[in-house]
Amino acid sequence: FAADPSQPVLLDFYADWCVSCKEMEAKTFSAAQVQAAVPMARLFQIDVTANTPEHQALLKKYGLFGPPGLFVLKADGSHGAGLLGYAPADEFVAWYRAQAK
Fold it and tell me: Are residues 24 and 68 in contact, defined by beta-carbon separation less than 8 angstroms?
């Protein structure tokens, strides 16, 4: 939050074994419309590959059974509805804009 604490942060729960996570990286995050709409410098990936007790607790905190799961975290620490599973670029951008308000 150091650069601009008023800007939201995008949390991305992912794992190396998660096929949908790899699809999000290859197709969604790399799409021009996503790059234009979402400040990727504010993207924080949370690697839950090892599935440790700490990872399980963090997934539970956000209501996730596993990755992928994305949340827009606001400056006050709150977040709205998460995006669960794979989403194409247009759906992702619409979700992000609605959550980042």
Answer: yes
The CB density around residue 24, as the number of other CB atoms within 10 Å, is: 25
Token pair belonging to 91: 């759906």
CATH 3.40.30.10: does it fit domain 9-87?
A: yes
Q: Specify burial of residue 46 (Cβ count, 10 A radius: 0-12, 13-18, 19+).
A: middle
What is the Cα–Cα distance from 87 to 54, expressed in whole angstroms? 26
Which phi and psi angles does 11 have, rounded to 5°? -95, 130
Q: What phi and psi, each to the nearest 5 degrees, are found at residue 51? A: 55, 45
Q: Over the stretch 17-57, which tens digit does the pLDDT of each residue have?
A: 999 999 999 999 999 999 998 877 688 999 999 999 999 99
pLDDT at position 1: 41
All structural domains of the chain with their residue ranges: 9-87
21 sits in which H/E element:
helix 19-23
